[in-house]
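Bet v I/Major latex protein domain-containing protein
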Amino acid sequence: MESTQLQKLETKVIMKASAEQFYDILCNKTHQIPSIFPDNLLSVQIHKGQWGTEGSIISWNYLHEGKVTEVKEMLEDIDKENNKISFKVMEGELLKHYKSFKIIIQATPKENGSIVHCVFQYQKQKHDIPDPHAILQITVEMSKKINEYLTHHHN
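Predicted structure tokens:
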């Protein structure tokens, strides 16, 4: 069995929306995201727990490379003070390619908005598995759509 190292892929998105607003949608109002980002995100459902609580299990149905894909994630860690949230992938298509996959998103206040830092920590099943750039791009697009929604509906 090949062993692969834990790897990291990250990016930042500049937002006009506040860090608190962005965090609130991502953590507490997750169920609203499909109506904000309908082109890619088909549905979000809670399977265990409540929205915005550690340990809750959420499934996301989204379009990835032209096909409907589902991932089930546990809301692993919530840091409200720092507008930071992390999800651990529990089931789904991603685990066919990665032994482990964690998504960490933090919104940091800045003058006239915020910066959203998206980090993927993952371990590939095999060395020749590509890095998850396409999934990161979907996360960036989702963040931009949330920003548009917040700046047009909450000002």
